[in-house]
Design goal:
about 575 residues, single chain, Actin-binding Protein, T-fimbrin, domain 1, mitosis, two-stranded antiparallel ribbon, cell cycle, kinetochore, mainly alpha, flat, Ndc80_sf
């Protein structure tokens, strides 16, 4: 609660009288005995800490309180200066604290206890005679520094606009904080109590102010807009819920997708196995080619050695000029022939390279075609084992580019004799199955149309029978009502006849045997009424039994039709 509202509820004082302190006096709230034993943990006798405290005190007194004070005043302080600074800080902390003692020593320690200074028990009033002395100044400086810190906290709290300050003018237009409610309520109580003390019982102005703060038009509009927004969100949520309830559960789609992904995974595993086998075959062919290359290199080395041996033999021979000339001519002829052969070998090598490029391209195209063929087999589910009667046929094909025999380039069943006829047979079988399925679908559609027509006829029959049953029920109700009415009439008539009979007996006893004939006539009428009532009861019971039997037969017939229709639908599906 605000510090400015402690005197509410008491008789107002004159303006010349100071209000009581919100912190209480020295005898108000006594500190617990445990606090009396607390020792001041601050390093008050350290010069650096004292310099910091003096700087904080000087800055606060100059900037916040606007006092004309210098650092020299705090360095060598006088008793009157200390009292002036203490009074300023204390009144700033508690403006209502009474400072009316003639001696500063009489109010110093009680004032510290009133503001809950935790180390007031360590203060000696004798220090105030010479506050700048070495043994007293650290503690007295600590008192001023603590008061400055408390004043800073109070200023921060006063400027924070916290709801606990209980300021009605700071209450926002929209509030839910209990402190805001308490502020308005306390302000209302304060104003009305003040008016009541002036002997006025009309609180219209206070009521209007309170209502305007509690129920402003802007707040109502804001609440209305929030309600509309929440309703829109609720409608959107309901529409989304209806869509979710109308649509199929997402788990079904996820299960179906999971099955498809598992099937694709199995197909990919099979394709990867084929690629791995193809890789192993290519690796084996490369190894074989490398071995042949090494053998050819060894052969070339052997031929070079043979050539060097023959050249050494020729040099060692002693030939005539004619033989040398002939050999030179033969050498030139052989050289030209060798050049021609080298040229032919180069041309042949170029042709071989071109053919190798062409073969490589064709092998790549063939591999792509085989990959496409394999993917088609996977999509068409024609991987072995095939359905009957092709369970012994394997339609998969593999390319072996390292084979020297052209007949062995393609590994698998014969394309012309086995693969192509089998695929044609499978296609024909699929077309036949499709035509059969289409025929069956048309047949099922016709049967469904017939069933729909029969259902409509049965529904019409059921409607007619329901109408008949309703009519019979109405007739039974009419008969029952008529029987009840007649029974009531007969009962009333019987009661009347009994009364007449009793009266007749009484009259007969009174008048003698002259009324026996009248009594017998009344008895006959009574017996006729009883027989009529019994006959009406029997007719009513028979009509009810007949109608109940017809209703039961109708229900049994409808149940039999529905059961036959369900059995027929289950057998067709």
């Amino acid at each position: 609660m605000s510090a400015s509202k402690q005197n509410v509820g008491r008789t107002p004082l004159h303006n010349s009288v100071r209000r009581g302190s919100t912190w209480g006096g020295a005898g108000g709230l006594a500190a617990p005995s445990m606090i009396q034993a607390v020792k001041d943990p601050r390093p008050l006798r350290e010069r650096q800490y004292q310099a910091k405290m003096r700087q904080d005190i000087l800055g606060y007194l100059q900037n916040q309180l606007g006092l004309d004070i210098t650092m020299s005043t705090l360095t060598n302080i006088q008793g009157k200066d200390y009292r002036a600074i203490f009074n300023e800080l204390l009144l700033h902390l508690d403006p209502n604290h009474p400072l009316n003692q003639p001696k500063f020593e009489d109010e110093f320690v009680p004032a510290l206890k009133a503001v809950r200074y935790p180390f007031a028990h360590q203060i000696d009033n004798k220090w105030l005679a010479a506050p700048a002395s070495m043994h007293s100044w650290p503690s007295l400086l600590g008192v001023l520094h603590w008061l400055v810190e408390m004043c800073k906290l109070r200023d921060d709290y006063e400027n924070s606009e916290h709801p606990t300050l209980q300021r009605p003018d700071k209450v926002p237009e929209q509030f839910d904080d209990p402190w805001d409610h308490a502020a308005l309520a306390f302000n209302y109580f304060e104003e009305t109590y003040t008016v009541w003390l002036d002997l006025v019982d009309d609180f219209a102005e206070s009521n209007q102010f309170c209502l305007s703060n509690y129920f402003p038009a802007k707040r109502n509009n804001t609440v209305q807009s929030e309600v509309e927004e929440q309703l829109n969100r609720l409608n959107d949520a309901k529409s989304r819920l209806k869509k979710l309830e109308a649509s199929a559960p997402p788990i079904n789609k996820m299960v179906r997708d999971n099955g498809l992904l598992k099937g694709d995974s199995e197909k990919f595993q099979k394709i990867l196995q084929q690629y791995e086998s193809r890789k192993r075959k290519l690796t084996d062919s490369i190894t074989i080619e490398k071995g042949e290359l090494q053998r050819e290199l060894v052969r070339v080395d052997q031929l070079k050695a043979e050539q060097e041996r023959l050249q050494s033999i020729v040099k060692a021979q002693n030939l005539s000029p004619e033989e040398v000339l002939e050999m030179n001519q033969t050498h030139e002829t052989l050289s030209r022939t060798l050049e021609d052969l080298k040229q032919k070998i180069a041309d042949t090598h170029k042709s071989i390279m071109a053919l190798e490029v062409s073969v490589t391209n064709r092998v790549s195209a063939t591999e792509e075609a085989l990959d496409l063929y394999t993917n088609l087999l996977s999509n068409l589910e024609l991987f072995p084992p095939l359905p009957e009667p092709w369970e012994h046929i394997d339609l998969t094909l593999e390319l072996n580019p390292a084979a020297s025999n052209p007949q062995q380039l393609l590994i698998g069943s014969d394309i012309r004799k086995i693969v192509k006829p089998t695929l044609s047979a499978v296609a024909e079988s699929k077309r036949t199955d499709r035509s059969n399925v289409e025929t069956e679908r048309i047949k099922v559609d016709n049967e469904l149309d017939q069933l729909s027509l029969e259902c409509e006829n049965v529904e019409e029959d059921v409607t007619e029978i329901e109408k008949k049953v309703a009519a019979l029920n109405d007739q039974a109700d009419d008969l029952r009502d008529a029987a009840q009415q007649e029974a009531q009439v007969a009962s009333a008539e019987a009661n009347r006849l009994e009364r007449d009979l009793a009266a007749a007996r009484t009259a007969a006893l009174a008048n003698g045997m002259g009324v026996k004939s009248r009594l017998q006539a009344l008895q006959f009428d009574y017996q006729e009424q009883i027989a009529k009532v019994s006959r009406l009861k029997d007719e009513t019971v028979r009509a009810i039994i007949k109608n109940s039997h017809e209703i039961a037969m109708f229900k049994e017939e409808v149940s039999r039709h529905l059961r036959e229709l369900r059995e027929f639908a289950s057998t067709e599906s």
